[in-house]
């Protein structure tokens, strides 16, 4: 191609003419793409005929649009060495392109064979076509999804109809199954109680063995070490004997803690009220938390299982107060009523858990308290919690007791 010089007003007039053609092409493309009721094949074919008119040498320009394995070309299109192309990627696996070419060489009016503005125009047209094709793909997917959904609804309706028929048959057997389940639940509850009793008995035996054998054995070792230390004051072994004494004392302390965790023997030996007072002294010595025990009403003898349950419940609530509530003082109020026993444990710590309309809502940190509530309920009792952030917590246990002699 040979250059043709254009200057002054002619050049400006030519540039304005080209811009008008480009804007017209964009407007015409928008109209074609927005027409409703036409297939993508018809739309792309019309577009191929329209785009060629926007180029500098429209009389020898041709366009081909490819998409999803199909081609849509303007009249007279054939491959040419004077061409430009922009790719279309509307969806994964679905690609195409718009190609504009000159069927024979023509001298450019300003520069060429393709203007910079024509490159931009082709890119803009490609974006418009891409958006249109993405919408086509979306509508196709939507139509398929709608068809699948309608099929699933029909199938689900048939399944529900059948299930409803089966359910009516099952309801005829429901009451009998409900009675069976209730029987199984009662059996499981009884089994759980027996298992808990057997576990507590085993723990008590282990704790007793630890106390009678290992604990007392360690205590005798400590005494003999003290005697040995006095008899061999000038032997040069005083430091080693003192270290052995300290190790023995640590072992004794550990064994006592383990015995306490396994089974609170003090409950068996002293009774419920005295055991609570011992527990208060233990928490002062171990955690420096002052626990005040208050008792009202005439005390009665409690069954061994219930006595252990209530003692461990108070123990666990005080542990919660120390570890989670960071409390330094607490009160345990024991109130003996004619047919019930009420225990209220109040601390002045940070509070714990959540309370909604008086009902305790457990979280991960207060799962032990939730488990405690389940055990109390299993014995026919109730456990309620009142707690607010920064205002401590009040836990109330209420459980039925049998009238009996003072214990």
Structure description:
- With 407 residues, this protein is of the alpha+beta class.
- It has 2 domains: 1-198, no CATH class; 264-400, Histidine kinase-like ATPase, C-terminal domain (Heat Shock Protein 90), CATH 3.30.565.
- Helices cover 57% and strands 18% of the residues.
- It has 8 helices and 11 strands.
- The protein has helices at residues 8-34, 40-51, 116-231, 238-262, 265-270, 272-287, 304-323, 367-378; strands at residues 61-67, 70-73, 83-91, 94-102, 290-296, 329-336, 340-347, 354-356, 359-361, 382-387, 393-400.
- The strands form 3 sheets. It has a 5-stranded mixed sheet, with helices on one face.
- Strand 10 (382-387) and strand 11 (393-400) form a beta hairpin.
- Helix 3 (116-231) packs across helix 4 (238-262).
- The longest helix is centred in the middle third of the chain and has 116 residues, at 116-231.
- It is elongated, with a radius of gyration of 45 Å.
- The termini are far apart.
- Residues 403-407 have low confidence and may be disordered.
